[in-house]
Amino acid sequence: MPRPSPDAVAFADGEPVGSGRPAVLTALAVVLWLLLRPTSGPTVATVEVKAPTQRLSCGQTADLIGIMTTDGSGGPIAYRWLRSDGQESGELTHTVRRGDHKVTVHLQWTVRGPGLFRGTARLQVLGPAGSPIEGEGTFSYSCV
């Protein structure tokens, strides 16, 4: 049986065998990898803290709302709340779903006892990467 010469081309369905199919499969594999690869987490562009605008009265709780604007990447965001009374939350984590550009977190702060108080809460983003970005909100309390 004669051997084919190195210049011989095999055909299947009218197309040369191997004509671009490996390249298409490779390109498809690269696209899938880019879409499904794990990321280090979302990039946080801005941080805002909304505090109650009305003065709180005896024993009320302030609901401080932190809003982080992201690039829409999924993954964990590490953050912490720092309060003007010296309390802090420690490091917390919120997992962002891919496609979410706004992330909301809450801090409940209850003030008790008589007196006047002005509280400031700072939301500090610690990660996934880059320098910390933060925002703050302030509320007033009066119990006489």
Architecture overview:
The protein is mostly beta strands. Helices cover 11% and strands 47% of the residues. It has one helix and nine strands, in the order ββαβββββββ. The chain has one helix spanning 21-36, and strands at 11-12, 15-16, 44-50, 61-70, 75-83, 92-96, 102-110, 115-127, 133-143. The protein has a four-stranded antiparallel β-sheet with strand order 6-5-8-9, with no helix packed on it. A hairpin with a 5-residue loop joins β8 and β9. The longest helix is centred in the first third of the chain and has 16 residues, at 21-36. It starts with 10 loop residues before the first strand and ends with a strand.
Low-confidence sequence ranges = none
- Portion of residues within helices: 10-25%
Q: Which range does the strand content fall in?
A: over 45%
* Whole-angstrom Rg: 28 Å
- Main beta sheet: strand number and arrangement? 4 strands, antiparallel
Give the overall pLDDT as a whole number.
84
User: What's the number of extended β-strand segments?
Assistant: 9
**Terminal CA distance:** 107 Å
Strand order of the largest sheet: 6-5-8-9
C-alpha geometry: rod-shaped
Query: Structural class, judged by helices and strands?
Result: mainly beta
Could you spell the SSE succession in H and E letters? EEHEEEEEEE
* Count of helix runs: 1
